[in-house]
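== Folding the chain ==

***
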Amino acid sequence: MSLPLQDYQRYGRQMILDGFGLEGQLKLRASSVAVVGAGGLGCPALQYLGAAGVGRLAIIDHDRVELSNLQRQILHNEETIGMYKAESAAQALRRVNPDLTLDVYTTALTALNALSLLEPYDIILDCTDNMPTRYLLSDAVVALGKPLVSGAAQKFEGQLCVYNLGESGPCYRCLYPTPPPRAAVGTCEELGVLGVVTGIIGNMQALETIKIIVGLHDPKPTLLLFSALGTPPFRSIKLRTRKATCPACSSPPGQLASLTSTDYVQFCGGPAPNWVEQGLVPGNAGHRVPPKDLHDAMNSAKPFKIIDVRPATEYGICQLPGSQNIPLKDILSQPGKILLECSNNEDLFLVCRLGNDSQIAAEVLRSAVSAGESTVLVKDIIGGLRAWTSQIDQEFPIY
């Protein structure tokens, strides 16, 4: 067998590698890979898999491109904001390699369609960012008998693992039989992420995939941990083989109920909270007030005080004039001390990013007011600083 003439020049730098050669390139050309998620992990994985010459790539993602994605999701750009991520990624890949065969799916992966969507592909990449989909993907690849190259990244850290590889490779449930509490699982929007970290993990996912296809992968199961601030930054943990009591991949097969009978969202603690909507809940009149009330107080002679309960790092990004930063954790530990620093009959406005942490702080301070002799009027802003931007000052930064 041979390659099209131009491919010898396109892929020559990797074909001359020992252990790779023409045979390796032909294996890549004949392979098919499904990448679930075209975000921070999926973009670099797709970019390098496409550039390496993987014959067929599926891009599965139902989200649309937003401005906040561009810091790390390198296949998207300002011109594709509002476009489906899967279509935006495909457009970028075709510019790099027009000969790619791309299957673009703009539908959400669910228990109903997972098996039919993933069945045509040799290897599956988990480039998602939520726990229900991780369990769904793991169960799906076990049912299909395919390897899963899984990545995760958050803040300054990331991890990588290949699941269900070979006859004894563990699945995701082998390592994590039960999901962590919903309250313990944060998102990049809440906790932040350094874009380079997602790039490193996504590239590593592409690398592991290529190694599996070409036959250079060490089948021994390991978990690779990465810390951008660690020395050294990489740490590898040896894993045990398939867990004998795993309900998904152990013998006898079929212990786990079918995918369609499993509610993965409820299994992982229910739907993820919509913090924007929760921050906009009105609450008790006089307790939760719209941004206009704070704006009116700032333009009146009545005494008032603004306490911003965000972490100091976020307060340093942007803040309301005249506000004081006291992080939520400090208010929870010493509410009485906060009230002592306020004048009686003074309006105390509490504000945060979306209007959620300020609710918690306000309730604690109101309890302290009721228990003491303070007459401070504690209020918190509905919708937080994001509502301030939309309703009062469109020039105030949103992040």
Observations:
- The chain has a mean pLDDT of 94.
